[in-house]
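__Record contents__

***
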Amino acid sequence: MSNAKGSAVASRIRYVREHFGEYGYQKLIEQLSPEDRARVGSRILPHEWVPFNLFINTNVAIDRIFGKGDLQLCYEMGRYGAETNLPTLYRLFYRLGTPMFIFRKAAQIWNVHYDSGQIRPVDDGGGRIRIFMESVARPHRAHCLSVLGWAAKSIELSGGTVTEAKERACRTEGAAACELALQFNT
């Protein structure tokens, strides 16, 4: 079983409370499995490991309840998580670094946030970057779209304007790696 940091799930809960209030939070809790409900109902610490399935199940439930059921809300929650989970120390890197610098650093610390897989950013030049998510134990589109949203917001936090962000390939559809593509202006 793979794991994610508690901050990933905690930011989803904050997103629900901020956008849909306490009523929305209760609606989410009601839709989770008893095991996930108990875990989300307890205090999740940002630096603790939680089951990756909890992260996926929470994203899917939020999208089903408050989105369109197409997982696109996971993209928005990824953007939200990029901003809310960003420690003050890293904000300096975002302001001074290029998007590729940020993605290379993110690749180096991937295992701080997930205990499975890795990301490999590729600079295609001209404001185009692809991010390959490889060897994630349990690939899921909710995760891919969350990372895509995080990447888009990261570009914006570094001063760029995203003109396109899309998922090009996904292991859940038979691809060798999940491929995220971003185009931006600086």
